[in-house]
Specification:
single chain, alpha+beta, Phosphorylase Kinase, domain 1, Transferase(Phosphotransferase), domain 1, 6-stranded mixed β-sheet, 12 helices, 15% strand, globular, binds adenosine-5'-triphosphate, binds magnesium ion, membrane, nucleotide-binding, cell membrane, Prot_kinase_dom, kinase
């Protein structure tokens, strides 16, 4: 794919420096250099309310012409909480309530007495422009959005240096937690659940691309940003990098390159030209992760297999490879034809040329069909010999007799 070659954790976001090389950007440190926004200080003016502080952030970040305009016209800001209320909800951010940590900061589970609801509270731990920018964009974007496949922003707190986001609590955590490095007591996701997650997540993306006014490019689609509710119902989360899509005759938005190694479309990484098709590429990577159980970037693998798309692309060419691509943790419990079709969709999404990638509504249609074709291991044959499954072990190619769907040639799935 030639997108990001990096060292360090694969899930970290990155930014392209001016000389076109990709540099790793440790999210716990202030983003440096090439930001186009004005220098900004996290100062709270005496007596400023939560709401006013957000307006100040918007002004200082020069965001008045972006999403904020639309929030003023169409939206309603999420409610505000005091820092004291959020500290009380999490027992002062105690370690028992800790859910996880990303580039933005730590996430805690809490109970907000005021609204009698269990919530997830994300606390920004970085000072500086980029963190505050992501905070503001997140609040504004989610204030405009309303869809069952997008995580709900319940409210926020912007007091002095403190920036916190309050979300609905997603009891099953992120998709990443269910696909990679599973703890011993966690069952791998079965085929039907994987296809359902893909279809519902695609529907969330369709809402951003085609239903929202204005349409939004997500820019941060990855497994850790797909959160799971009861029954593995997925919702997209983290909209701090979202961008209003191109308007009028424009085909792209020119912007500095932000995203996550392994998920970022090569065309966007090279040119800084962001399109809806950049999200489709990232979606293709997620779909490949669901099918193969492999990470977008995995430095523990052999050199040629570290980048999922680079590994998968040559394999798409010959369907005899397909059974070697599927996650060994499925233990052969998948429909052969469904596998071919899922790989066909993924292959189309991760094509090098952005205009060759499908629109999100085509992806939704194809995945809805796939998810409706339920696999039943009691009825359908279990593929291959999978008595001792291993993610790294040798695999058997035994699916030559099944359907003739090839991702290179077939777009009808
Ligand atoms: N609303 C939520 N409900 C339950 N758990 C959550 C929620 N939001 C986040 N988490 C947990 O917190 C972890 C960290 O999330 P966060 O979005 O901060 O980081 P990330 O997505 O892993 O990385 P990045 O900052 O690069 O996007 C998630 O993996 C998830 O387990
Ligand atoms: Mg996240």
């Amino acid at each position: 794919m030639g997108c990001f070659r990096c060292s360090g954790r694969s899930s970290k976001r990155s930014e392209r420096s001016n000389n076109n090389s990709i540099k790793r950007n440790d999210q716990t440190r202030t983003t440096s250099g090439s930001l186009k926004v004005k220098p900004f200080a996290n100062v709270k003016e005496e007596g400023t309310s939560n709401d006013d502080q957000l307006s100040l952030d918007v002004k200082n970040l020069n965001l008045v012409d972006e999403v904020s305009k639309n929030v003023r016209n169409n939206g309603k800001l999420a409610q505000t909480f005091t820092f004291e209320e959020l500290a009380a909800a999490t027992g002062n951010f105690q370690s028992d309530c800790f859910l996880g940590e990303g580039g933005f900061g730590k996430v805690y589970k809490g109970h907000l007495d005021k609204i009698n609801q269990v919530v997830a509270i994300k606390q920004l731990d970085r000072n500086g422009v980029q963190g505050t920018r992501e905070f503001v964009i997140e609040v504004l974007t989610l204030s405009l959005a309303d869809h069952p496949n997008l995580v709900k922003l319940i409210g926020y707190c912007a007091e002095g240096d403190q920036r916190l986001l309050v979300y609905e609590y997603m009891p099953l955590g992120s998709l990443e937690n269910h696909l990679h490095d599973l703890p011993r007591n966690r069952q791998p996701l079965d085929w039907n659940t994987r296809m359902k997650i893909a279809a519902v997540a695609a529907k969330g993306l369709e809402y951003l691309h085609e239903k929202m006014k204005p349409p939004v490019i997500y820019r941060d689609l990855k497994c850790s940003n797909i959160l799971l509710g009861e029954g593995y119902h997925p919702k997209l989360s983290d909209f701090g990098l979202a961008k209003v899509g191109p308007s009028g005759d424009k085909t792209h938005v020119s912007t500095r390159v932000m995203g996550t190694y392994g998920y970022c479309a090569p065309d966007y990484a090279m040119t800084g030209q962001l399109t809806f098709k950049s999200d489709i590429y990232s979606f293709g990577v997620v779909l490949l992760e669901l099918i193969t159980g492999r990470k977008a970037i995995d430095q523990k693998r052999d050199h040629g297999e570290q980048n999922l798309v680079a590994w998968a692309r040559p394999m798409f060419k010959d369907r005899r490879n397909f059974s070697r691509m599927v996650d060994p943790l499925l233990k052969g419990q998948y429909p052969v034809r469904g596998l071919y079709q899922a790989l066909a969709i993924a292959a189309m999404c991760v094509q090098e040329q952005p205009n060759m990638r499908p629109n999100v509504s085509d992806v939704v249609m194809a995945l809805n069909y796939l998810a409706s074709q339920k696999y039943d291991p009691q009825i359908d044959p279990v593929q291959g010999s999978h008595k001792t499954p291993s993610r790294h072990g040798p695999k058997k190619d035994n699916d030559r007799s099944a359907g003739n769907v090839s991702p290179e040639s077939n777009g009808d799935s």
